[in-house]
Write a structure and sequence with these properties.
Blueprint (H helix, E strand, L loop, with lengths): L1 E5 L7 H16 L4 E7 L10 E2 L1 E3 L2 E2 L4 E6 L3 H4 L4 E4 L13 E5 H8 L8 E4 L9 E8 L14 E5 L9 E8 L3 H15 L4 E5 L4
Parallel strand pairs: 6-11, 8-10
Antiparallel strand pairs: 1-12, 1-13, 2-12, 3-6, 4-5, 4-9, 7-10, 8-11, 9-10
Helix pairs in contact: 1-4
Length: 207
């Protein structure tokens, strides 16, 4: 189940949005019958996306890289195997060194090897924009991004907690065996417990 959560009307300042999103996710995870849950900026196979080139050793790579920001637990929720390294965790904060998890195709096309744990890269930016260096802490199996018919492209994930301009909303992916008739009301109550001013819509991803 995909929960589309919007809290624009709360007018939260940017510095409070990540903590608020974490509170929402923690409440969703406590709902009985929820196997796992994770927050994400861009839902896979939704047709939406974010891509850019990356810079390695001060040289811009011409491979187009798909990107996303996710919370810890995303790969478990979506059954995406972590092949090396680690998941994001509570130590990955706005004040800690920037980190990334990449897929196999990213490792092959950008570095020519899957031995990339500890390697670093930057996202190509317009002149004058801030540019951060990301250290790779994990590598995951290739997955589709925009749709099921596309080729397997390079993909990089970043922790939501390190986003310096968080949006006043999020998507939460929920894995559960419960019927929707009981799961959705329970999730609505849990989200409402955080703040009644939050709006939420649900979509399904059956497979």
């Amino acid at each position: 189940l995909i929960a589309d959560i919007d809290y624009t009307r709360l007018q939260l300042p940017q510095e409070q949005r990540d903590r608020f999103r974490q509170n929402l996710l923690e409440q969703v995870r406590t709902v009985p019958g929820v196997t796992s849950a994770a927050a994400i900026d861009i839902v896979p196979l939704s047709g939406s996306g974010w891509n850019n080139n990356v810079v390695v050793n001060n040289k811009e790579n011409d491979a187009n890289v798909n990107m996303d920001r996710v919370s810890s637990g995303y790969f478990e929720t979506m059954k995406i195997p972590i092949l090396a390294g680690r998941d994001f965790n509570s130590n990955d904060t706005a004040h800690s060194p920037k980190v990334a998890i990449v897929n196999q195709e990213f490792a092959r096309k950008i570095f020519g090897s899957e031995d990339v744990i500890g390697r670093t890269f930057k996202i190509a930016v317009y002149k004058g924009d801030p540019q951060y260096e990301f250290q790779i802490v994990g590598i995951v199996k290739n997955t589709k991004y925009y749709d099921l018919r596309e080729d397997l492209d390079p993909l990089a994930y970043y922790p939501q907690a390190q986003d310096d301009k968080p949006y006043p909303g999020t998507w939460i992916m929920v894995s559960s065996q419960l019927p929707l008739s009981s799961l959705i009301p329970s999730l609505q109550r849990a989200i409402g417990n955080v703040n009644q001013g939050v709006s939420v819509d649900f979509q399904t991803m059956d497979a």
